[in-house]
Amino acid sequence: MIRAITLGMVVLLMLGAMACDSDEVPEGYELVSNVGVALGEWSITSTPSSVPAGLVRFNVSNGGPADPHELVIFRTTVAKDELERIAIANPEERGFLPEEGVSGVEFIGEVEEFDVGLAMSGVFELSAGSYVFICNIVEPEELDEEGNPESHFLEGMYATFTVN
Ligand SMILES: [Cu+2]
How many domains are contained in the chain? Predict the structure, then answer.
């Protein structure tokens, strides 16, 4: 019985250390919204999909079933098919949406790649506007049906998000 309790505490402490990695609310700020983001092959689902402007904590989970994923946040009004066209035409890495230097696309931040079954969070200050979420991982060793490096974005890991 005592052993079981001790093990439980260790697990809780590990979870605590993981959760506070990048989700600190800066001093003098107040958290406005919590948003759940589910990553998986091949979708990004955000609940809710719009929030008021201010400090937002994204609680991001990776449901897999197989791959590590990341959440990259861009501020943009550029349509999905145009972003896909830009990623396909990227001379450096086909399927990767450049995180700087694309007109009308501003990189805001990211919750870095993490494994299936885990949850990570990140806090971002967002002003009113249109945003998109992308998993920008490209796996050169993994080919898609057309024989191109597998791009998580092109496979469908994209969602729109609105800040009012
Ligand atoms: Cu991914």
Answer: 1
> CATH code at 50?
2.60.40.420
Instruction: Quote the domain boundaries for residue 94.
Output: 2-163
C-alpha 62 – ligand 1 centre gap (Å): 9
Find the 119 Cα to ligand 1 centroid distance in Å: 14
CA of 61 relative to ligand 1 center, distance in Å: 12
Q: pLDDT tens, 78-101?
A: 999 999 999 999 999 999 999 999
How far away, in angstroms, is 20 Cα from ligand 1 center? 22
pTM (predicted TM-score) = 0.85
- Nearest CA-CA partner of 69 in 4, 115, 10, 23: 115
